[in-house]
Design goal:
The chain has about 425 residues and is an alpha/beta fold. It has 20 helices and 8 strands. The structure holds guanosine-5'-diphosphate and magnesium ion (MG). Part of the signal recognition particle protein translocation system, which is composed of SRP and FtsY.
Length: about 425
């Protein structure tokens, strides 16, 4: 997915501003990428329409290119779609009752163990795991092994074939043993089926859980959406758990499920180790789906550091061919404010790897700044003033030799004439100078 999105964004890189045309193209590419990632077409369409609306209404930020700004918009919209902020998880009851439901193999038992471990180690709770899978004795063994690993008691009744009474007895057990959370791991079937649904619904009715978590394998794509809808209809669950995010997972599941059932995704789980449970953060998931966390932070950094008004002023000066050493110095300072040049460039997709072995240092900029600093304000504003005797003074003051200074002055003149040339072109803009 992220490769496709990257190429979608590439399409509008270098364009002068976010226009209706390049938005339409980008939006089409993003939509295709989402559909390929198993996001339902209708959802992908509604989502990209929203992005389009936002992009058209947004002001062009002068200092970053529109491609990057689109990434930011897409990321923000994705985050909003997946719930905005992380949601509450209710473990205030005594005991708090948590019912776990989902298809067989979705990761319920593994998640139950992880949740117990999380509540015990991170929330200071005293959990009791309950084995309510009445069909497979191996499921009880599995939970007991996990319980042993994390030091959490497991309640089971091997001869009892009634999930409801097991759950009720477990609550009594929890009270008598001072356990303040019980996690009921139920049986699943390979596909949605009436017996399974009725059984879980009966447990729900009998114990009135504080949380009902629907566990879903994030690798099941489109099917995950249908399963989620079926479970939600019967159980009206309170949250979703996405498992197996460590695999070659398609980010589409998170998006579609949230959109379809409109229930918060509360946890995400990757791996079989008991300590790999994460609270679900919509923003991180959006970044994961985009695969472009770094690019997004680059855009945010630029938004913080660059003053749009300053950039507009600069552009005007360039247009009038008034760009001078004072302006140049301001530009350098803007770049420096954003941090280490190499780090910044490394955030651009595709560039990072190439840059790894290249030696870029900020010292090159320091030398240039030193030369500008050794000029008087008049010289900076009017470079034509710089005659041989002034050159000598500037070179000495900046610790550079005359050759280096001459080279720099020549480069500056070349840059200026290039700007002049570009200004004559309709979309003419100096790369790196304000708008791109
Ligand atoms: P249940 O039938 O819903 O209880 O599912 P299980 O918890 O027994 O998990 C089914 C299989 O998926 C087991 O082999 C687990 O080890 C594996 N599994 C569960 N969660 C994850 C996960 O987050 N990542 C990976 N890679 N495997 C998982
Ligand atoms: Mg199980």
């Amino acid at each position: 997915l992220s490769e496709k999105l990257e190429s979608a964004f590439k399409n509008i890189k270098g364009e002068g501003r976010i226009s209706e045309l390049n938005i339409a193209n980008t939006v089409k590419d993003i939509r295709r990428a989402l559909v390929d990632a198993d996001v339902n077409y209708k959802i992908a369409k509604e989502f990209t329409d929203k992005v389009k609306e936002t992009a058209l209404g947004s002001k062009v930020l002068l200092s970053v290119n529109p491609g990057q700004q689109m990434v930011k918009i897409v990321q923000d919209e994705l985050t909003a779609l997946m719930g905005g902020t992380e949601s509450e998880f209710n473990v205030t009851g005594n005991p708090a009752i948590i019912l776990i439901a989902g298809l067989q193999g979705s990761g319920k038992t593994t998640f139950s163990g992880k949740l117990a471990n999380y509540l015990k180690t991170k929330k200071g709770k005293s959990p009791l795991l309950v084995a309510a899978d009445i069909y497979r004795p191996a499921a009880i063994d599995q939970l007991e092994v996990l319980g042993g690993q994390i030091g959490v008691d497991v309640y089971s009744e091997r001869e009892n074939k009634d999930a409801v009474s097991i759950a009720q007895n477990a609550i009594k057990e929890a009270r008598s043993k001072n356990k303040n959370v019980i996690i009921i791991d139920t049986a699943g079937r390979l596909a949605v089926d009436e017996v399974m649904m009725t059984e879980v619904a009966n447990v729900k009715a009998a114990v009135n859980p504080h949380e009902i978590l629907f566990v879903v394998d994030s690798m099941t794509g489109q099917d995950a959406v249908n399963t989620a809808a079926a479970f939600n209809e019967r159980l009206d669950f309170s949250g979703v758990v996405l498992t197996k995010l460590d695999g070659d997972t398609r980010g589409g599941a998170a998006l579609s499920i949230k959109y379809t059932v409109n229930k918060p995704i509360k946890f995400m789980s990757s791996g079989e180790k008991m300590d790999t449970l994460d609270v679900f953060y919509p923003e991180r998931m959006a970044q994961r789906i985009l695969g472009m966390g770094d690019i997004v932070s680059l855009v945010e950094k630029a938004q913080e550091q660059f003053d749009a008004a300053e950039a507009a002023k600069l552009e005007k000066r360039i247009r009038k061919n008034q760009f001078d050493f004072e302006d140049f110095k301001t530009q350098l300072q803007q770049i420096k404010k954003m941090g280490n040049i190499k780090d910044l460039m490394g955030m651009i997709p595709g560039v990072g790897k190439q840059l790894k072995d290249v030696d870029i240092n900020d010292d090159a900029f320091k030398g240039i700044e030193a030369m500008i600093n050794s000029m008087t304000i008049e010289e900076r504003r009017n470079p034509d003033l710089i005659n041989p005797s002034r050159k000598n003074r500037i070179a000495k003051g900046s610790g550079k030799d005359l050759n280096e200074l001459n080279q720099f002055l020549k480069q500056f003149e070349q840059m200026k004439s290039m700007m002049k040339m570009m200004n004559k072109m309709p979309m003419g803009r100096m790369p790196g100078m304000g708008r791109r």
